[in-house]
Write a structure and sequence with these properties.
3 domains, two-stranded antiparallel sheet, 61% helix, 7 strands, Helix Hairpins, alpha+beta, five-stranded mixed β-sheet
Length: 343
C-alpha cells in the first residue's frame, strides 16, 4: 500500500509540485491585491479627515475642488492596482503553464525513451539468441559438416542485423540530440538514395528495391535523420510488402515527395494513423503493416525537419504506400527528363 502510494507520487511529483505552486501563487496575488486595496482606502480616509480639519480655513469651492482631486487620485490608483495585479497574475500564470508544458514534455520524452529501450531490447534479443545458439552448437560439434556453411552464413546475417540496428539507433540518437533545424543541410536526394541502397545491398539480404524516378533535387534534411527514416521505411516495406518494393520521388506542391510502395499486406484506410503509434504491433485492430517504434521514429524525425510521413492503402492485401515529404533546399532545381535507377 505504502510502496504503491510512493510510486503514484513519484510518477506525478512534477504535476503535484506545479499544482501547489500555482495555488500558492494565486493566494499571494489575491492577498497582495487585498492588502494594497486596504492601504489605499486608509490613505483616502486620512486625506478626507485632514480636509475636514481644514474646512474652517478654506472656502466651500476650494473644498469641493479638493474632494474631486482626492476622488480622481483614488480612481487612478485603483486602476493602477487592478492593472498591475492582472499583469502579475498573467505573467505568473504564463510561467506556470510553461513549466507545466516542460514537465509534460519531459514526461513524454521519458516514456518515449522507455519504449525505445523496450523496442531495442526486443529487437536485439532474437539475433543474439540465434548467434549464441549457433556458437554453442559449433563449440560442441553438433552441427553436421553439410549444414555448417549455411548456418554460419545465417549467423553472419544475424550479426549484420545487429550492426544495422545499432547504427540506426545511434543515428536516431544523434539526430534527436540536435535542435530540429541545427543539423539540416542540403542533400542531393538521388545520390543519397543510391548510396543508401548500395550500402543495404552489401550489408543486408533483404529483397531488391526498384527505383522508378528520383529527380535530381536537393532536400533540406538532417543526414542521420534522413537515413533513419529511409532505413525504417524500407525495412517495414520488406517485412510487410511481400518482397516487392518500389521507390519514386519528385517535387509536388513545393516539397520533395518520396513514395515507397509495396504489394504486401496493406491495411484498412481508416487505420493509417494507427501505424505511427509508438507501441503499435498490430494488436488485433486490423493493423498489421508496421511494428514497434520504426514508423513512429521515422515520422517524428521527418516532422522535426519540417516534413511529414503519411501512409495509404486501398485495403488489406492490396499493398501500401508510405509518402515522405521534406522541404526543398533553397534554389533546388529539377533537370528535365532525368532520373536515377537502381535495383
Amino acid at each position: 500500500m505504502r510502496s504503491g502510494f510512493r510510486q503514484w507520487f513519484a510518477e506525478r511529483a512534477e504535476l503535484i509540485v506545479l499544482g501547489l505552486t500555482m495555488l500558492t501563487t494565486a493566494s499571494l496575488v489575491i492577498w497582495w491585491t487585498i492588502l494594497l486595496r486596504g492601504e489605499m482606502r486608509t490613505n483616502e480616509q486620512l486625506e478626507l479627515e485632514v480636509l475636514q480639519l481644514q474646512a474652517d480655513s478654506i472656502s466651500l469651492q476650494q473644498r469641493d475642488a479638493r474632494l474631486s482631486e482626492i476622488a480622481a487620485h483614488h480612481q487612478s490608483r485603483t486602476v493602477m492596482l487592478v492593472g498591475e495585479s492582472t499583469l502579475l497574475g498573467l505573467l505568473l500564470s504564463g510561467s506556470l503553464v510553461l513549466l507545466f508544458l516542460v514537465a509534460q514534455r519531459r514526461k513524454q520524452q521519458r516514456e518515449d525513451m522507455e519504449k525505445l529501450l523496450q523496442f531495442t531490447s526486443h529487437e536485439f534479443k532474437t539475433p543474439v539468441a540465434g548467434v549464441k545458439g549457433l556458437l554453442q552448437s559449433l563449440a560442441i560439434g553438433s552441427i553436421p559438416d553439410a549444414q555448417r556453411a549455411e548456418l554460419i552464413r545465417l549467423g553472419q546475417h544475424e550479426c549484420d542485423r545487429l550492426e544495422h540496428l545499432a547504427e540506426t539507433i545511434l543515428a536516431y540518437q544523434r539526430a534527436m540530440s540536435r535542435e530540429p533545424r541545427e543539423g539540416a543541410q542540403p542533400i542531393e536526394a538521388a545520390r543519397f538514395i543510391a548510396d543508401l541502397l548500395t550500402h543495404r545491398a552489401r550489408t543486408s539480404s533483404v529483397g531488391e528495391v526498384q527505383v522508378a524516378v528520383v529527380d535530381a533535387v536537393q532536400v533540406l534534411a538532417d543526414r542521420d535523420g534522413l537515413r533513419v527514416i529511409l532505413e525504417n521505411l524500407l525495412d517495414n516495406a520488406h517485412k510487410y510488402g511481400g518482397g516487392s518494393v518500389r521507390l519514386a520521388a519528385g517535387v509536388s506542391d513545393g516539397h520533395w515527395r518520396l513514395d515507397i510502395s509495396d504489394q504486401g499486406r496493406g491495411f484498412p484506410p481508416e487505420s493509417a494513423e494507427k501505424l505511427f503509434d509508438l507501441h503499435n504491433r498490430g494488436s488485433g485492430e486490423g493493423v498489421t503493416h508496421g511494428a514497434g517504434l520504426g514508423l513512429a521514429i521515422a515520422r517524428q524525425l521527418a516532422r522535426r525537419m519540417g516534413g511529414d510521413i503519411r501512409a495509404h492503402s486501398p485495403g488489406p492485401g492490396q499493398g501500401a504506400v508510405f509518402t515522405v515529404t521534406l522541404m526543398l533546399a533553397p534554389q533546388s532545381t529539377i533537370p528535365l527528363g532525368e532520373g536515377a535507377a537502381h535495383g
